Backbone:
């Protein structure tokens, strides 16, 4: 028996082709779903996603048995991509206040184009617990930079900034059709209230969200 006869059999070409087709279909579904969910929100009919992705309903359901499965996959991808971009921009910005304000600008600009993301923000704070923890740790980093530089109002917590981001995202969607860009005015007003020159004590805050408590616990480890 030759060495060629003893070699491990290769995967049949037909099987490799089927796997490649499946991967292409999955990628097409996710890409189309990202566009459709951004345009119409999470209540859209998945038949529209199948149509835009060029696959049949059977193929869509083989990859994503429920619409919630597909929505979670798309939102986690979008959320992670957005936060990664925001984090890179903040790290490249030397001025702590500009880094904080740039985060809010970038966040709301992104959410103005993504209805499903805003819905997720309002309903659960983030697509998943891991996403929420990633976001809150980043916001805590921005807050700490501003606080250490003497630029942030005393008493402002990470939870305050998370909730401010959430509430402003609702304004983005509520005013986008009737008053596009109105959120920029309200963002400027809100950020002005965060400046250190405002010395009046803030009202007592409520309990922090679980994801924010996790950030605090990690920082103390």
Residues:
């Amino acid at each position: 028996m030759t060495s060629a006869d003893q070699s491990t059999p290769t995967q049949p070409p037909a099987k490799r082709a089927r796997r490649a087709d499946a991967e292409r279909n999955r990628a097409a579904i996710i890409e189309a779903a990202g566009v459709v969910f951004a345009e119409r929100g999470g209540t859209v009919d998945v038949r529209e996603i199948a149509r835009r992705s060029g696959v049949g309903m059977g193929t869509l359901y083989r990859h994503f048995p429920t619409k919630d499965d597909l929505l979670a996959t798309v939102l986690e991808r979008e959320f992670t991509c957005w936060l990664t971009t925001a984090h890179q921009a903040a790290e490249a910005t030397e001025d702590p206040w500009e880094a904080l304000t740039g985060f809010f600008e970038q966040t709301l600009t992104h959410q103005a184009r993504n209805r499903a993301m805003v819905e997720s923000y309002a309903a659960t704070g983030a697509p998943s617990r891991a996403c929420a923890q990633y976001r809150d740790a980043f916001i805590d980093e921005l807050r700490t930079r501003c606080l250490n530089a003497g630029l942030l109002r005393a008493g402002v917590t990470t939870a305050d900034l998370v909730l401010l981001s959430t509430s402003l995202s609702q304004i983005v969607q509520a005013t986008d059709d009737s008053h596009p860009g109105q959120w920029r005015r309200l963002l400027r007003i809100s950020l002005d209230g965060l400046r250190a020159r405002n010395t009046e004590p803030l009202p007592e805050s409520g309990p922090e969200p679980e994801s924010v408590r996790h950030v605090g616990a990690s920082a103390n480890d």
